[in-house]
Amino acid sequence: MALVLFTVATLGIGLLIGSVSAPDQWYQALAKPAFNPPPWVFPPVWTALYLMVGVAGWRAWRLPERTLLRIWFVQMALNFAWTPSFFLLHNIALALGVIVLLLIAVLAFIAQAFSRDRIAAWLFVPYAVWVAFATLLTFTIWRLN
């Protein structure tokens, strides 16, 4: 039951935030780099990532020691803060700061999980790659605008 709760909550909150802060005309008018993915890429990528992140959170919850679970919640808060800071507040600099902290938290989760639950650590690797790419993309958009 906890596995379902972690995955449904992670995916559901992520999709809710994405739906209420979808790209608008402000975003459309921004200068973007050539490597900016087309809009259709984001929903399937985030769906897959949120499912893996939810499973990793559940695995962290099952551990008796709570450090990993705390890091998981911190990175989720940062993850959920990026979209509104970028798309609702239109604050690219704030979004850049949030995503840099998110990348640090994701890497910290992997580092901590590797000795406690390797499956949880490996579930976060694609997420780390995507967040690193999103950090570069956010930085480049900030520089161009």
UniProtKB/TrEMBL annotation:
* Keywords linked to the UniProt accession: Membrane, Transmembrane, Transmembrane helix
Q: Where are the transmembrane segments?
A: 41-61, 68-87, 93-114, 121-142
Q: How does it sit in the membrane?
A: Multi-pass membrane protein
Pfam families, alphabetized: TspO_MBR
Major place of residence: membrane
Q: Which Gene3D superfamilies match?
A: TspO/MBR protein
Q: Taxonomically, which superkingdom? A: Bacteria
Identify its protein family.
Belongs to the TspO/BZRP family.
Its recorded name reads: Tryptophan-rich sensory protein
- Species in which this protein is naturally found: Mesorhizobium liriopis
